[in-house]
């Protein structure tokens, strides 16, 4: 079933890089916007275009009864329903390192040919990045020449510290680098297959600039546009506010991901007294770091928001609701994939060094996860 179509705005285009569950969901939500932008899916290998064609060049979303109440869905009385969004363009990273564009205006014959003649190097103005943090630099590198000071990049990812890593690796000159936005998303989304997702839980998204400095803030197009999607349920915030939301989510992930991964368990093992001492020691480290962060000095209510009692109550509440959930780092270790530990607990280690805070618990968790990863290469 197709969701009702909305008017296309030919003057605006958003590129989406990283088409896992969140990136695919973000692309779908862009079709949920009145006067929707043209949307280009960035496919990092030709085989993904084959999968895109197999899905009839659509993104398919399965909703639950709860999530049907939001967005442009018409289903009534069913527990689950499928909807399709169409009208996407695609660019494919070919084996020679060039991006090849296919548009909906091309013929079927051209679109089935994996070697298009229409190579593109056009600048990108709006880019949503939803890759795993550890793959971000590698995913952006083939696009580097197309990312200019007029480009705005929205990072919708777990972990923190990616802006610093991207600048260090790709955009060392502050004058020529893109502008950045940060995003936090709490929707439940699962990837069933390429371009097919299930929306398991309606929640919210938060977006905001990555800096409080006016000269480092670019176009506000995404900040204005994303909140217009009923399904995404996004709100635009100031830098200080979205930073605090990122930190809150990172605290949960810093406890949940490595501890569950080391025990190969669901979130429920973190409830109760078994791991409480570790939890409180970890919280004590991150609270000291947050209270010393220069960018948050003078923010009203900071010490209360990031106080030990409030943090424990918040994290335990989240864990209670997700006790049967298996977090991403568990799946990564099971599949012998590199984890995002460097951008989760590793972020606290780096910040601790910068701000003079000892982080023995975060250090230990990083070391133990990295030790497991190293054993695969031994």
UniProtKB/TrEMBL annotation:
Its EC number is 1.1.1.169. GO terms for cellular component: mitochondrion. Residues 241-373 form the Ketopantoate reductase C-terminal domain. InterPro entries: 6-PGluconate_DH-like_C_sf, 6PGD_dom2, ApbA, Ketopantoate_reductase, KPA_reductase, KPR_N, NAD(P)-bd_dom_sf. The keyword NADP applies. It comes from the Eukaryota. Keywords: NADP, Oxidoreductase. Coiled coil: none annotated. GO terms for molecular function: 2-dehydropantoate 2-reductase activity; NADP binding. Belongs to the ketopantoate reductase family. This is 2-dehydropantoate 2-reductase.
